[in-house]
Fold these 2 entries.
Entry 1:
Amino acid sequence: MFFTYLRRELRNRRKQTVVVAIGLAVAIALVIVVNAISTGVKDAQSEVLESVYGVGTDITVTQPAEGPGEGGGPGRFDFGAEDGEASEDGTRNLAQDRLSTAMGSTSFDATALETVAGLDHVSGVAATLDLQNMSFTGEMPDPSEGPVTMEMGPDGSGEGSSGGSSFEIDQFTVTGVDPDAAAVGPLTTAEVADGRTLEAGDKNVAVLDATYAAQQELAVGDEITVGGKDLEIVGTVSSTTGDGVATASDAYLPLATAQSLADLADQVTDVYVQVDSADNVDAVAAAIESELPDASVSTQSDLAEGVTGSLSTASNLIGTLGTWLSVIVLAAAFGLAILFTVSGVNRRTRELGTLKAIGWSKGRVVGQVAGESVVQGLIGGAVGLALGALAVWAVNLAGITLSGASGGGFTMGGPSGQAPPDGATVQGDAAPGGGAFGDRSDALAGAAGNAVDIVLQAPVSLWIVLAAVGLAVLGGLLAGVVGGQRAARLRPAEALRSLA
Amino acid sequence: MYQIDDLTKTYRQGKRVVRALKNVSLTIGDGELVAVQGPTGGGKSTLLQMLGGLDRPTSGTVKLDGADLAGMNDTQLTAARADTIGFVFQTFNLIPTLTALENVETALVPSKIARQTRTARAVAALESVGLRDRGDHLPGELSGGQQQRVAIARALVKNPKVLLADEPTGNLDEETRDEIVDLMVGLWKDQGLTIVLVTHDSVVAARTPRRLRIAKGTVKDLTAA
């Protein structure tokens, strides 16, 4: 009788049932979509972070540049009059390599590594030395024949006023890593593409990013000049994040080799920290800050905030607008369900009073009214689930591409965040009398930040499905409780009133 | 059947206190058919509420087969209504979304008997009011007289001790009214049912052996010798 009566009632007031169910369905669908996209965006953010900081890194420790002049970066090339070999016409062939810390970062003493390793809840640490290598090769006219002036235009292009010069500036990023600490750090998201990765005891060898190697037409067995020294390339690595995504650096050297080439003995630029449990991340970060007052300590969530580009826009949009929209629509749907249930009870005063008069208990009458609302909620939940799944499916099918960049503390010029990750090289192929420095800012942004295009994949978890159905039932239950209370207060004598 | 002593019922209507029944004492024996007449607002419906356990008196006792309805809690009253008292209303009060048969079955829902038995008894009850072939009709598809027959079947299906009817012919034309009165008188004669019939129709009242008149909260037995 319960189900027969319930079914007939819902069918009889079909319009109300449909309106309430649709209201709940839209709210549920919205909750599912917002949650799925938000999860998708978070996944994308952590992918961006992983491509830069490696898997399993909870905290990174760096030291900010103390002033504009203090940071590293591609400094000047200084050539004396006697440098290079003068050819017969007086032009000199010049080549110089400069290896220094990457722009915006400062090296600090490697003892920080032991300090951090000694803290509670730290399960893994690794230090890296992020460097930038700039090499200059070319020929310059005899400086004694006249001053060489270079005028830089507003777009960064340069032009030599004195004829006869031809040069090339090559720039790439170099990271010194400790092969022993392979569990943490940038190389954890890299997989060997060719040859091998760095091993303990390696010295004066290099592993290249596969993308960079292909671009430079370098292969395993070739040599690469870093800081003026030729190193054997023992392997190439590619990112596990996706095809065509560059790894964090163009070249990887054993930490000791990098330190000696850059003349930065016992210095590092980044410490990667793994914490035993996510609950302890904040505590460990605070401990590091107090142990190393000069250091800049970033947790994964700090780093997530540093992700720029459309990914960050999407994250903000979902985070605020999506959540509030869900809450408002959910509240409206609940309100609608309650309103219709209460008005339904009011309309059925005599009917429900009659049932009480012929011996239906209060509980049975309340249960009947509440049951109708809960079933409405279930219908709404089911429709909402289908609607939400459809919407999420559409979002995934649409293949929305989010681009995110996570810089090492700065981004520079150009359409940052969209700079291709392979744009890490400046090539000024200067004809005599002209030096082109175009695309410089783009290239620097690409070198410093790490832009990754990620197709948004919005997952629907079992948990959110259960939560959504739970919300729908809750909406129905809430309406049922309010309507049922009203029904419970009804006096059976209402049945005797001849006018309803 | 009923033993009523010194029954008073007062209502509060805003600031006004209405004394619907004043110190009523009354006995209704087993198997009696009693008509209750009187002007509107005289206390007819209030008396019926007291007899049916729909409301509690302000003072006095209403004993149904020795059990005082005035002293019962909600659960006990609900049980009494479910088991011993059958109601018939002026406006029939059938559930519009349920068929005639299902409406009759609703009266058996509180007794928690097996579904098959419930349906069989409902079919028998419908047959006893001459509507066996209308079981699958919705109330809206039945005439007023047919609806009241279904309502009577609903009241009788649980074999109550007493049938309380509140203006059962009030919404019916004369011909149908006579049919319903015939039916009720027949049930009274055949089954020895105790029936209390509230009506302002003297034609209906004339069919009953005992007539009470309620006016201004007091009862007068018109048939008392």
Entry 2:
Amino acid sequence: MAKIFAVVIILIAIASAVPIVMHWWPMPQDISVHGTLIDEQYADTMLEAGISFLASQFLLAFFIWKFSAPKPGERVKNFPGGAAGLVAAAFLLVGTEVLALGVFGTKAWASVYLTPPAANAMPVQVQAGQFAFYFRYPGPDGKFGPLHADQISEANANFFGLDTTHDQDSKDDIVAAELAIPVNREIHLLMHSKDVGHSFYVPELRIQQDFVPGLDVTVHFTATKIGKYEIVCTQLCGLGHYNMKAYLEVKSQEDYDAWIKQQAALQ
Amino acid sequence: MSKTKNFAVVLSAVVLVCCGALILGQKVNAAGEGKITGTVKLDGTAPHMKGIDMGKDPFCSKAHATDPGKMETYVVGSGGGLENVVLYITEGLTGPAASQTATTEPVFDQKNCMYTPHVLALDVDQKFKVTTSDQTTHNIHPLPNPMTGNIPWNQSQPPGAAPVEKSWKAPEVIPVQCNIHPWMHGWFVVVKGPYATSDSNGAYTINNVPPGSYTVTAWHEAAGTQTQKVTVAAGGSGSANFTFKAK
Amino acid sequence: MHDMSAHAVPHGAPTSFIRKHVFSLDHKVIGKQYYALALLAALIGMALSWIMRIHLGWGSFAIPGLHLLSSTGAPGNVLTPEYYLQLMTMHGTIMVFFVLTTAPFAAFGNFFLPIQTGAEDMPFPHFNMMSFWVTFVGFWVLIASFFVADGPTLGGWTQYAPLSAIGSVGGPGQGLGVVLWATSIAIFCVGQLFGSLNFITTTLDMRCKGMSLMRLPLTAWGWFITSVMGLTAFAVLMPACILLILDHVAGTSFFVASNLVINDQVLPHSGGSTLLWQHLFWFFGHPEVYIAIVPGMGIVSHVLITNMRKPMLSHRVLIYSMAALAVLSYMVYGHHMFVSGMNPISSLVFSFPTLVITIPSTIVVLMWLGSLYGSKLRINSASLFALGFVSMFISGGVSGFFLAQPSIDIMLHATYFVVGHFHLVMGVAAMFGIFAGTYFWFPKMTGRMMNETLGKAHFILSFIGAYCIFMPFHYLGIAGNVRRYQAFTDDYLIPLIPVHKFITVAALVTGFAQLIFVYNLIHSRFKGAIASDNPWQGTSLEWSTATPPPHNNFGDKMPVVYHDPYQYSVEGASADFIMQTSPEKINSPNEEK
């Protein structure tokens, strides 16, 4: 039984590593500028975690195999170096490992959250609500009109609660159900929720950020590859959570200009 | 033993009498029934209805690829007839006509990510079915005022789901919405007594109206309500035409 | 210090059935009651996970009879999206609170902590009895929510506000369902607070003559550390739940911000904080993870030592590591909230203690592995599950490296990677701890042995099965598979559906393997071989009393302790093991001075 168990551990450990090594279900492609840092951090961590995982499982299996059938009269032995050696090893090896991960990971985190968006970043507002995202572009005046919660009316397609009769800034605002952005242009995304907690997750963009009802949150990113990607909600928001999504369309500048013109006409 | 027998006999007699009374009662009513007819029109040009961006859901946008969806707040026919106006009797109903419940079971369908019909008029306690014809999940979320006694509910219908059968306890105008597709918006208009909804030409007929004089109310989700007095003769019909102004 | 032992409120052996088996003051009966409750809860939780897994693999499959549970939640025996979430919430809540907290901590701790400290009972037997019955009521309040109009809450076991605080407008079960949920958890907290107080005082004040703190077995240390965590963690969750209830019934807005709109109607709340709930919840929630796992660490160490026939490399290092985990567990809770919208600097601040917590975890694992070296390992059901625990703890632990880092958490947060991580490290590992404890202590608790063949079959199926279920979760998460989805309709998720089908099959098989355990448990209880007083040749106090122990644990003679808990294979000693109560003089390097 002990030997079977040891072999099972080894087989499971190897089988667990195979899909990772073979990239059977890889991370979605990266289309962001900051994503490289995250991906490198992920790869480093995978290497260290993978080695720790395989080494410990193999050691466990080996010890089970070796020490489960003691010969009669055999004495117990102590691990060379004893507890002190292992504690020192844990502090030195794991301590350095995690400290290094922490320090280098800070760089990736900072690139997303601790650097302000560029002055010329394009502002887009996103509102999450049960169970859809809506996006607002400021229009030619570059200004977002104020929001009025009491005027939100999905029945009349006023998803943001804009008062276009009274608010000058709202008159040219463009509301769309998808997020179209020009490629290689930094986007400053202004996020708010209309009702409960939601999250904005685009795996390809290496962005995930919760919406906090009552709080305005922002993220900024630059997409580098033209294409259509899915924006999904990752914060449990109710029965339609799994259906809450929108599309991110990264377009060339010309296509984007045409799109925004077309949207303006539809308002 | 004999006691049980006696009981059975009495019970059957009671049931028979009751059934007979019910059947006779209906016949009596049907004999004298009249109707109220008319048309509802919108004055002036129809307001522009915004298009709906269904980009969120590939199923919906595909269903509307050639025929882009638009808001249904004002649906106006060729002759200016206003659709989706609910006409019902607010004064004058007495006796069995006031307490009878309509027996038909209308269907409120979710089709191509829109509600069909956009406005569903219902009698109090009348059963209706919510169905889905779409290959995408909807949730049906009517929000009545709980103070009326109507209980709000919120239920998903994935593709192929069985119809949901419901009814409302009290008269009320209830907005209904799909939160998964926030543009999907409709109304349950729950009234007491006979009712009708105007068709695409604005025409309507309220059937099963006993002779008498009544106040007919016309309700529109955006244009508001109007009332008119109508008299119905035995077996005849009254007439009331309404003209709304877009707000 | 050796004779500071206080005495329990004296209570004689009960005679009536009710006082003996129902409202018993005896910690051993209460421990068994907790175990029975946990077993019932685990079976319900597992059944719920089956329903969910079948739905995730084959969404339109009709599960016969499911409509009996809820005709609106499962029309035609197929789950609706909301009912999936409702069952998911109940699965999480039942498993975390009523299984992972009650079984390793309250059940085994109640039965064995007083015996291992050499006490005749806990110091407050009435509180102890209340602790169980309060928990019992809490459980049924939770179960009751299955049978109210809208069914149980769908908010997930974390019950994030404001979805949990705005009432039924948020979705089915968000009205009465949440109120019942929060009431149940608040009641549960009261029960655990009673229990924690008893555990702490038992450990500190009830030790028998000669039982210094360092002479306590590692299990006792595990429960002691856990009870200290429980005292602080549940004391935060309980008021949080009360505030949540007030948001529902008293019109307050602790967790609901102003101007929220649902169905075009502005909600009648204002001024609350969304993140407040998350802070309160995770201040409890992270220690809770260790509340679930530290007793398991104690049990596994205890079982391993007995079956390795040698003590751990260092008794003290293990105790200090468990204590370090407990202290750090309060400083790391923010790692659940990296992308929650709290200050991004806070994320970094929480990230470092989270990374540091891998150090005591690694030390614990290295202690187990290092002690295994040179041992005379006995393979039985108990030791297999203990070794399985080590394997699971490693696997679940290494994924912590990823989640501890905010930058990687951007990708992995709220994906199946997280689900895989906590199921392995907190779910499966803790379960294996419970199984190890059961196979190990069953003879002492019931006087009969469990069937070893069935135990080993149960183990190997569970071990392989658990890996087949939870390893693929990590791959799904890396590919971006969001958790808490009842169907995978997004284009990039559709290719992952075959993985979900594989997991479903694995879950069903592994689930059936648990029925072997249930059969073994019930069959052995009545038909098992009669157990001796010390079937495993153990050294700690539970093995020096009769099997099963008498009402006051040690009969008329209170034990006196002469040795450290784990004197195995001592050179020059008269036997392979020296019991703590043995007055034999030995020269052991492990003996505390």
